Amino acid sequence: MTTKTNCTDERMTWPYRPDQNSALQIDPVVITHDGYYECLVTTPDGNFHYGYHLQVVVVPEMTLFQNKTRTAVCKAVAGKPAAQISWTPEGDCVLEHNYWDNGTVTVQSTCHWAESNVSVVSCSVSHETGNWNRSIELRQGVRTLPVSLLLIIRYVISSLFLVILVVMGIICFQRRAQK
């Protein structure tokens, strides 16, 4: 029979008697629960000390996209601990780590392949929670229109629409005036 327990955190519970089963239960576990937990149990048979180091891991979200000619970006977003990123075939890569306040890390690898014989590249993300692979076909000419050009096109189309409406209004007005 347990006569006294002294645990360091009120979130800890013992599913069974702590002097007979030392399983620690924290429910629900959240990312901020990282740390060392200990419990001292006093029974007629003696004192029992249990200590646990808890490291919460978070699965990263993987993304892969092409952002400019022959350049791809692979991200492992908000993982804990930080994920590892590798490429097949290897390219000219830049690796960045963004550390978030909650302890997670976003890892981004931006790679460029100058050789035109490389048409498909694969990104691999390795993490304590699993491994993921994605592939992408490198397009030769990913071109986007500048915002200023898009605005000009929008204004021209809007102006043409307005002119058509005015002309249609005039035609309708003239037809009614003739009747």
What is the secondary structure topology, with strand pairs?
Blueprint: E1 4-7, E2 12-13, E3 25-26, E4 35-43, E5 46-54, E6 61-68, E7 71-79, E8 84-88, E9 92-99, E10 105-112, E11 120-127, E12 130-137, H1 147-178
Antiparallel strand pairs: 1-4, 2-3, 4-5, 6-7, 7-10, 8-11, 9-10, 11-12
How would you describe this protein?
The structure is a single chain. The protein is α+β, with helices and mostly antiparallel strands and 179 residues long. 18% of the residues lie in helices and 45% in strands. It contains one helix and twelve strands; from the N terminus they run ββββββββββββα. It has one helix at 147-178; strands at residues 4-7, 12-13, 25-26, 35-43, 46-54, 61-68, 71-79, 84-88, 92-99, 105-112, 120-127, 130-137. Strands 6-7-10-9 form a four-stranded antiparallel beta sheet, with no helix packed on it. Strands 1-4-5 form a three-stranded antiparallel beta sheet, with no helix packed on it. The radius of gyration is 31 Å and the shape is elongated. The chain starts with a strand and ends with a helix. The mean pLDDT is 82.
Helix/strand order, N-terminal first: EEEEEEEEEEEEH
Question: How much β-strand is present in the residues?
Answer: 35-45%
Helix content: 10-25%
Q: Write down the Rg.
A: 31 Å
**SS summary, helix count:** 1
Oligomer: single chain
Which structural class best describes the helix and strand composition? alpha+beta
Shape: elongated
